[in-house]
Specification:
binds iron/sulfur cluster, alpha/beta, globular, 11% strand
């Protein structure tokens, strides 16, 4: 049993014997419970659990929680933000113009969309396409972490402002992490802008180009030559 699971059981035990007050912040208790709520040990079980997930209020307005697209045997994982209306409708990340731009961006470094398993940081669409609230990110975090654990990619490309909220407890400016390489469960991960943001802010094209070049080097080092 992992230490988080053990801590969760202990908290449940204290509650069961009538200890109403536990000296920990509400956020910590919520984190411990959410972090341990996806114990599925296979991709199929996790997928089924996701279909029924009601861990945050976003389940009320979604058409479905989106699992992702691509082979789960892929060496590469791409993590996007959260589904917009179109993605919710089509049940997949990246559609329309944004998908076309993504395909061009990846082609520029010799990769294809099909080389990746592509998923969202937060799996359900939000009202009016607003960024997910911190508690929604927190509730959804275990699903993505479990996907990473089960899929075991060799390298991850994260696009947009939502993925860092999953991986960094502290609020960091996007510019301080963009284009840098971090590790998630020993897997290298690079953060860059989302294609939808690039369409609205063409000045970011040059930065994304630099990031993608870096990603290509990581690909050669960690995937091609392994
Ligand atoms: S956003 Fe994530 S945690 Fe919230 S209901 Fe959807 S799948 Fe569950």
């Amino acid at each position: 049993m992992n230490p988080l699971e053990e801590l969760k059981n202990y908290i449940e035990y204290l509650e069961a014997i009538g200890i109403a007050y536990i000296p920990a912040s509400k956020e910590l208790l919520k984190f411990v419970k959410s972090e341990t709520s996806f114990e599925e040990d296979s991709i199929e079980k996790l997928k089924n659990k996701l279909k029924e997930c009601k861990a945050c209020a976003l389940h009320r307005i979604r058409k479905q929680a989106i699992w992702g697209e691509g082979e789960t045997s892929a060496d590469l994982m791409l993590i996007s933000e959260y589904p917009d209306r179109e993605e919710d409708f089509h049940n997949k990340p990246f559609v329309g113009e944004i998908e076309k731009l993504l395909i061009r961006m990846l082609a520029a470094i010799g990769l294809k969309k099909q080389d990746f398993f592509i998923t969202h940081a937060v799996k359900c669409k939000t009202p009016g396409n607003r960024p997910p609230e911190p508690e929604e990110v927190l509730a959804c975090k275990p699903i993505l972490l479990k996907q990473i654990k089960l899929i075991k990619p060799k390298l991850i490309l994260a696009m947009g402002f939502t993925p860092p909220k999953i991986f960094f407890e502290k609020k960091l400016s996007f510019s301080s992490i963009r284009g840098k390489v971090f590790k998630v469960k020993e897997i290298p991960i690079l953060f860059t802008y989302h294609p939808a943001y690039v369409i609205k802010n063409p000045a970011t094209k040059r930065l994304v180009w630099e990031d993608l070049q870096k990603f290509k080097h990581l690909y050669i080092k960690f995937v091609k030559s392994s």
